[in-house]
C-alpha cells in the first residue's frame, strides 16, 4: 500500500523522487532554468516558463511560479494514482 505524506500543514503531497525543480523557477524546453534579464522577485512581473520535476517531467509553458506549483501537485497526484493502479494490478 502506498503511503502518501503531505507537507506539514498542507494537503500537498510529497512523493519521493518527484521534487519541483528550483522551487518552480521557469525552465525552457530542455529543462534549463530561464534566468530573467532583470532581477525578479517582489514587484517584478513573473517569468513564464515550464515547470520541471526531478523525474524528468516538464509542464507546458505556464505564466508564473504559482501555476507551476499547481502543475507539480497535479503531477504528483497522477504519480500516486499510477502507483496505486500498479499495486492493485499486482495484488499488493
Ligand atoms: Zn515527477
Secondary structure elements and pairings:
Blueprint: E1 5-6, E2 13-14, E3 49-52, E4 58-62, H1 65-90
Antiparallel strand pairs: 1-2, 3-4
The structure holds zinc ion.
What features would you highlight for this structure?
elongated; 28% helix; two-stranded antiparallel ribbon; binds zinc ion; single chain; 4 strands; alpha+beta; 1 helix; 92 residues
Characterize the structure shown.
It is built from one helix and four strands. It is of the alpha+beta class and 92 residues long. The protein has one domain. The chain has a two-stranded antiparallel sheet with strand order 1-2. It has a two-stranded antiparallel sheet with strand order 3-4. It is elongated and about 55 Å long. The N and C termini lie close together (7 Å). The mean pLDDT is 88. The site of zinc ion (ZN) has 6 residues, from helix 1.
* Helix share, percent: 25-40%
Beta-strand segment tally? 4
Domain module tally? 1
Cofactors, ions and other ligands in the entry: zinc ion
Overall pLDDT metric: 88
Dominant shape: elongated
- Major sheet size, sense and barrel closure: 2 strands, antiparallel
Rg on CA atoms, Å: 15 Å
Amino acid at each position: 500500500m502506498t503511503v502518501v505524506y503531505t507537507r506539514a500543514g498542507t494537503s500537498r503531497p510529497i512523493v519521493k523522487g518527484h521534487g519541483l525543480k528550483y522551487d518552480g523557477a521557469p525552465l525552457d524546453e530542455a529543462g534549463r532554468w530561464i534566468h530573467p534579464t532583470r532581477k525578479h522577485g517582489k514587484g517584478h512581473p513573473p517569468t513564464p516558463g515550464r515547470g520541471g520535476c526531478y523525474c524528468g517531467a516538464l509542464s507546458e509553458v505556464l505564466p508564473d511560479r504559482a501555476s507551476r506549483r499547481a502543475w507539480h501537485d497535479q503531477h504528483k497526484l497522477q504519480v500516486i494514482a499510477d502507483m496505486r493502479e500498479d499495486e492493485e494490478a499486482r495484488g499488493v
